[in-house]
Specification:
426 residues, mainly alpha, 2 strands, globular
Length: 426
């Protein structure tokens, strides 16, 4: 018996080892294909990612100046979980609502004893005729509340980045994240409520359409099934487009203070005038962020492999490693969303700055020196910037030596952190 048990254990271990090897081979094939695609895209888009790299540097510099912004996704997750818990609590009340109805029946406990017959009364709750409309209203509340919290998060982060961009003296920016949150709840709740309501309506329509598809899937003709699938695909695309427009409208509202419709109109024209840049930034930027998430996922998977491969109590460790990698990807996606919103915010501010300013005295750019290199008339703007910096240094030197003329006002530096940024990059 002992020998047979050992043989059985050895057979199980060999089978699990073979399954682990096969699973690792599939993982290796997937990773190899992804790496090949990454390499090809880098080769073909190497001349288009310069502005994207600059935006990443600017976003990283601003994030390091307000590191607390990386913890905002945790607060967002807590709010969404609290909202989901409240929705589930109310759902229990809705599910148990109805008219109490008695159901009488007789049960016989013993066939041989006639007295064993007993009348039993059961009470069940009969749904109201309008219960389906209540569920639709309740589901719409779930969608709207969730999108509302997401919109508040996006606008608060955009407000924090906006303060850094549109302030010439970066040292004067204090508590940007707190001020961004305050701006949302003080001035822009209507904007985020309206924008999130549009997304919630689209999601509710998609849910109703999916419900109809599920209920009529056995009685539909092939043409009807195809049309419903096309309609569902169109609604999905429309939802993605509206989310893209909403995010950029929130960014525009964060630094202009305009209402939702005006912001949508203005930012749409702004994006349309920079359509090539928008395409490159969205495609290349999303791809670079995906690479970052994929690296986090890959590192987690490798660490999980070395931690679990020698565990004798675990036969098939590939599934736990995969689950840990998926969870790491979800966490990385949550935190990388801050960088994604920051990059979009800096780009919208950059496009608006390029539109309203030209780098001449009195209309100096707010953008940094690195971003000026991607402006058409950057040469003249950089000359003006260098000339202004020389004047500022001369004024500071004269002030220290006591030779400053009385009555002259010392101009605050336009870009006090440019030298520090250049030294840091070097």
């Amino acid at each position: 018996a002992v020998v047979s048990r050992r043989v059985r254990d050895s057979t199980i271990k060999l089978e699990s080892t073979a399954e682990n090897v096969d699973t690792l081979m599939y993982y290796a094939i997937i990773i190899s294909v992804i790496c090949l695609v990454v390499l090809l895209l880098i080769i073909f888009l190497r001349s288009r990612i310069g502005l994207m790299v600059t935006l990443f540097k600017e976003a990283g510099f601003m994030v390091m100046r307000m590191i607390i912004i990386l913890f905002t996704p945790i607060v967002l997750a807590l709010f969404i979980m609290a909202w989901a818990a409240l929705w589930s609590f109310v759902s229990a009340y809705v599910y148990t609502s109805g008219t109490p109805t008695e159901l009488l029946f007789t049960r016989e406990y013993n066939m041989d004893v006639p007295e064993s017959m007993a009348n039993i009364t059961m009470v069940y709750f009969k749904d109201h005729d309008y219960i389906n409309y209540v569920w639709l209203y309740h589901l719409f509340g779930l969608y709207w509340g969730t999108e509302f919290f997401l919109a508040c998060h996006e606008m608060a982060i955009a407000g924090a980045f906006v303060q850094f961009y549109w302030t010439r003296d970066k040292r004067k920016v204090h508590f940007p994240v707190v001020r961004g949150i305050w701006w949302v709840f003080r001035y822009h709740l209507g904007t985020v409520a309206f924008g999130s309501c549009i997304i919630a309506i689209i999601q509710l329509i998609r849910t109703i359409l999916a419900y109809i598809q599920n209920k009529t899937k056995d009685s539909q003709s092939e043409i009807v099934k195809y049309l419903l699938m096309c309609l569902q695909c169109c609604l999905w695309c429309f939802e993605k487009v509206m989310k893209f427009i909403n995010r950029n409208a929130y960014i525009y509202t964060a630094f202009k203070g305009s209402n939702f419709c005006s912001s949508c109109k203005k930012v749409f024209g702004l994006l349309l005038s920079n359509v090539v840049r928008v395409g490159v930034i969205n495609c290349v930027g999303a791809f670079i962020l995906f690479i970052g998430k994929f690296l986090v996922c890959l590192i987690t998977g490798v660490l999980g492999y070395f931690m679990l491969k020698d565990n004798s109590e675990l036969y098939y460790w590939a599934i736990p490693v995969l689950l840990a990698a998926i969870f790491a990807f979800a966490v990385a996606h949550t935190f990388f969303s801050v960088y994604e919103i920051g990059i979009d915010t800096i780009f919208i501010c950059f496009a608006e700055d390029e539109t309203i300013n030209d780098g001449t005295p009195g209309r100096e750019y707010y953008m940094s020196k690195n971003l000026m290199e991607w402006v058409d008339n950057s040469g003249e703007a950089l000359k003006n910037l260098k000339r202004k910096k020389k004047q500022q240094k001369a004024q500071a030197k004269a002030a220290k030596s006591g030779g400053e003329v009385a009555g002259d006002k010392q101009t605050s530096p336009m870009y006090p952190d440019l030298d520090e940024m250049e030294m840091t990059e070097k």
